[in-house]
Prior knowledge:
- Residues 151-272 are annotated as: Disordered.
- The protein is built from six helices and three strands.
- It is mainly α.
- The chain has a domain at 32-149.
- It has a three-stranded antiparallel β-sheet with strand order 2-1-3.
- Strand 1 (270-275) and strand 2 (281-288) form a beta hairpin.
- The longest helix is centred in the middle third of the chain and has 83 residues, at 135-217.
- It is rod-shaped, with a radius of gyration of 61 Å.
Amino acid sequence: MKLSKKQVIVGGVVAVLLAGGVTAGVVHNNNVQAAKVAQQVKDKHDKLIQSVKEQTAQAENYQSESDVKTAQDVIKKLDDKEKSDYVNRIEKVQKNWNLINEATKKVVNAEKIQNDTNVKTAQKAIDNIKDEKIKSKKIGLQIRLDKVKKSVENTKKKKHMTSQKGLDNKKVADNTTSSNESAQSKSSDVKTSTSDTTASANGVSSDSNSNVQASTGGNISVNGGSNGNVAPSPVPTPAPTPTPTPKPDPTPAPTPDPTPTPDPTPAPTFTGWVKNRAGQTVWTQGGFATLEAAASAAAAWANAQPNPEDAWSSGAY
């Protein structure tokens, strides 16, 4: 069938229209797909940003040091322009954790080996913690170190008391020795005085006896015995009156009578005491040379007790 010119023209127009519609449909479909992909990329990026924010905030709460590593792994996925702020924040968190770990290490060492050097080192490490976000951790470490400080001070007080007690005991011993030596010296003086008095009295008696014996001996004749060396004295006529034998004078009593030296008086000692709040005696110690020394030792012992109820009052007598 032969088409007319008019039919050919109409067919051409229809063909052109159909071709244009197909092309427009393809273009539209491509635009829709591109928009969809772009939206997916944006959504993924937004989720990454949200995750970075959350992990960074979690690390800044200082609940666990492992949160720092988690945040760092998420931040690495960002572009360099986007991640600089988060990197700086996480680095600050890590530095604070380093300070906390260092201070904790020093406090633990001070708790194990309690002395002034370790306490000072730990205190310096705690003072380096300045961020307000980790103030609670700093306070916790300070409380632990304060307990160590108190323990060190108590140890010093006990050593001082022991040293003071040794000095007081030595002083008491020295005073006792001095008193004994003084007493022995006085006793020796008394014995010497008594000996001199006795010797004087015996001297008088001895002289008297000698005189008596000499007087008596002058009137006694010596009989020669059987050897005949001495001639017997002739018997006088009339018999002479015998010479009376003088009686020795009694040993004169010393005038005035010597006053006996009294026994040496021992040096007085004092006792310190400490009582608890209930009035019960919890500590006593004697042998102090002075009342002040006894009271001072009692007060020192009371001050060294950690519980005031156990050492409510102290004194000496």
